[in-house]
Amino acid sequence: MSHIGVGIIGTGSIVHTYVKCLSELEGVRIVGLCTKSADRVEQLKADFGLPIYSDLNTFVQHPEIDLVCVCNESGRHSIAIEAAAKAGKHILSEKPLEVTTEKIDGLIALCEERKVLLGCVLQNRCSTDYKQVENAVKSGKLGKLLMGNASINWYRSQAYYANSKWRGTKKLDGGAAFINQGIHTVDLLQNLMGPAVSVFANVQTRVHEIEGEDVGAVLVNYENGAMGTITAGTALFPGYPERVEGYGEKGSIIMEGGKIIAWNVKGEDVPELTSKEQGSGAADPTAIGHHNHKVVLQDMVNAIRENRKPMVDGAEARKSVALINAIYRSSKSKKQVQL
After folding, report:
1. How far apart are CA 128 and CA 168, in angstroms?
2. Sign of the CA dihedral with 211 first, then 212, 215, and 220 last
3. pLDDT in tens, 70-128
4. Is pLDDT of 280 > 80?
5. How far from the centroid of its chain's Cα atoms is residue 316's Cα?
6. CATH class belonging to 4-121
7. For residue 247, what are the contacts with CB-CB under 8 A and spacing of at least 6?
8. Contact 69, 301 (CB under 8 A)
9. Cα(277)–Cα(291) distance, rounded to whole angstroms?
10. Rg from Cα positions in the chain
11. 228-279 pLDDT per residue, tens
12. β 259-265/251-256 pair status
């Protein structure tokens, strides 16, 4: 195909990142945006200079759309993904793919049946520093893994939730601090450490007037025998950069705010650190740059052209949601939960 036509479903704040990224990719054309808010159509036209649609089913049937980017509320991703898949369009969804593994399993099966690609945006995997950490861990430079920790000790004001009808709700956000803010770092940790086999968790809502949690702590056991902890919050003023720690018998590596801050591996020199655009959403969700999103979008376009799986497909995106769902079940039951 001469170019890839892209349609975007959902017009929240993240849509600005998608429009910017897609406009910088060669061989890609944005066909239009789709919003369920009919009263926003004229403003969106003025903001983006693109065709704006308000009927989902009409939009996904557009003959010039090859790829649908799903950017609506997390708990409504399945509605958009199902419509796009049934229309024969490839799909790239914002994280999380959906808020439960049951929904994700249905989406994976549908996309396989309709022979369309399904990808998920977990863009923190694309940072240069993280790739160096991933290579070190997976090539065995740390030796036997002993412990993997993550902290996403962030802050969001009450206005952040009050100004949104879906953030912090269990139906549309799936929860709060872990599944919204924390999922990127949980994904990185699990990608490094391997599958988790059990969790013992305590999540609470201490400050914000929301259904989901604004603070929580988890003990994790991994399939390879390693253990670790995860903490997450949106009530932890003023908010600190997210952190990933990997410890093995031969050394340790620590990342903070997407950058390596400690590299202590026996027999290994500290690598050259070359991270380009990197930011943390510790206190401001708009502080994260667009570079890594652009890498994910380029990969998805290439996957369509090359007829291959995207960087993070449905099965891979499911893993972090499965872990977070288990965290919520453990906290509710006050018991250790097996995955």
Report:
1. 31
2. positive
3. 999 999 999 999 999 999 999 999 999 999 999 999 999 999 999 999 999 999 999 99
4. no
5. 11
6. alpha beta
7. 142, 145, 146, 147, 148
8. no
9. 6
10. 20
11. 999 999 999 999 999 999 999 999 999 999 999 999 999 988 887 665 545 6
12. antiparallel
- The side-by-side arrangement of strands in the sheet containing 118-121 is 52-53, 28-34, 4-9, 67-70, 90-94, 118-121
DSSP secondary structure letter of residue 163: T
Structure tokens at 289: 């740059």
Give the angle subtended at the CA of 254 by the CAs of 212 and 328, to the nearest 5°: 20
Domain locations in the chain? 4-121, 129-282+319-338
Cα–Cα distance for residue pair 213/179, rounded to 1 Å: 10
Token pair of 124 as six digits: 């923190």
Residue 32: how many other CB atoms lie within 10 Å: 18
User: DSSP secondary structure string, 284-305?
Assistant: -GGGS-SHHHHHHHHHHHHHHH
Q: What is the architecture of the domain spanning 129-282+319-338? A: 2-Layer Sandwich (3.30)
Are 258 and 278 in contact by the 8 Å Cβ rule? The answer is yes
Query: What's at 191, amino acid-wise?
Result: N
Encoded amino acid at 317, one letter: A
DSSP H or E segment with residue 210: none
Average pLDDT score, the chain: 95
